[in-house]
Amino acid sequence: MKREFAVIGLGRFGGSICRELSSEGMEVLAIDTEEDKVNEFKNIASHAVIADATDEKVLKELGIRNIDHVIVAIGDNIQASILTTLMLKELGIKKITVKAQNDYHEKVLNKIGADQVVHPERDMGKRIAHSIISNNILDH
Ligand code: ATP
């Protein structure tokens, strides 16, 4: 069954999620404030729109309420990321995944009810460190 996703913020991280979900046949609504980014995803995502996700009215107009899982991949603007997450939570989104910039950001996101908080650089660093250790064990 096709599932519906929305990706807010189409930087390297959000963009990569959007591409993968779309290539797996999922319905994806891609959102960014930058026209160039949105144009890049016009032929990849099911829908790509220029919008500011911190605007509650805009989120409602986009019908975000009907989406199963929203990924917030807003980069450096921690305030916008927190505000967007809070509004998605208030709108009753079932699953919210958010990219955290630092530990403080992560703590706030957990507190306001983000279902999954990811820290891609740190998480990937950990994963690679563990894979280096296991490969070393196998080599010896
Ligand atoms: P990376 O490219 O490594 O993923 P990043 O996570 O810091 O880095 P950015 O390149 O900063 O990501 O991308 C974040 C994206 O989020 C940008 O394309 C930016 O335009 C978008 N963005 C920022 N604020 C908003 C907002 N309020 N609503 C929608 N999109 C936003």
UniProtKB/TrEMBL annotation:
One GO biological process from the UniProt record?
Answer: potassium ion transport
Ranges for domain RCK N-terminal come to 2-118
Q: Which GO terms describe its molecular function?
A: monoatomic cation transmembrane transporter activity
| Superkingdom in the source lineage | Bacteria
Protein name (database record) = TrkA family potassium uptake protein
